[in-house]
Specification:
This protein is mostly helical. It has a single domain, classed as Orthogonal Bundle (434 Repressor (Amino-terminal Domain)), CATH 1.10.260.40. About 60% of the residues lie in helices and about 0% in strands. The chain is built from 5 helices and no strands. Helix 2 packs across helix 3 (about 30-35).
Length: about 70
C-alpha cells in the first residue's frame, strides 16, 4: 500500500527522492520501497526521514484508522 502522506510531503519539500535518500545515507531504492509500502521503516528511520523533509513523523506516518474498511 502506497504511503500517500509521505509521497505528498516529499513533493512539498521541493526535493527529489534521491536527494533525500542521499542526505540520509540511504540507497534511493530504500526510500522508494518505504513510499510504496514494501519496506517498513523503524522508529529511527521514520524520525530521520521526517527531519530530512521538514515535517513531523505523524505527518508522514499517520496512525491507521481502524474504522476504515480495507
Amino acid at each position: 500500500m502506497c504511503n500517500l502522506e509521505l509521497k505528498i510531503n516529499i513533493l512539498k519539500s521541493g526535493k527529489y527522492g534521491y536527494q533525500i535518500a542521499q542526505a540520509l545515507g540511504w540507497h534511493p531504492t530504500k526510500l522508494s520501497q518505504i513510499v510504496s509500502g514494501v519496506y517498513s521503516p523503524d522508529k529511527e528511520e521514520k524520525e530521520a526521514l521526517a527531519i530530512a523533509i521538514g515535517v513531523a513523523v505523524a505527518d508522514i506516518f499517520p496512525k491507521p484508522n481502524p474504522q476504515v474498511a480495507a
